[in-house]
User: Which sequence fits this backbone?
């Protein structure tokens, strides 16, 4: 993934927090878990944003459909 290049400082900060503040030992397992957790959170957020975006587009289409149906019944000065 390309975002991992830009997220390297975040990975380091998470791992440093876990080692220095939470007193975990700096092992490969900790390194893997910290990275995997962060990437998993990002992918979950991405999926949520995609779903919300699709729902907003569908809402606009539905509203437009409602306007078109109302316009069919509109009468000028009858």
Assistant:
């Amino acid at each position: 993934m390309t975002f991992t290049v830009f997220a390297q400082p975040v990975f380091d900060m998470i791992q440093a927090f876990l080692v220095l503040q939470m007193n975990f030992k700096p092992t490969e397992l900790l390194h893997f878990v910290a990275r995997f957790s962060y990437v998993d959170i990002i992918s979950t957020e991405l999926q949520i944003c995609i779903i919300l975006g699709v729902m907003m587009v569908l809402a606009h289409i539905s509203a437009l459909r409602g306007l078109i149906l109302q316009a069919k019944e509109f009468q000028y000065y009858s």
In short: Helices lie at 3-6, 8-20, 28-72. The chain has two domains: 1-44, 45-77. Residues 1-44 form one domain.
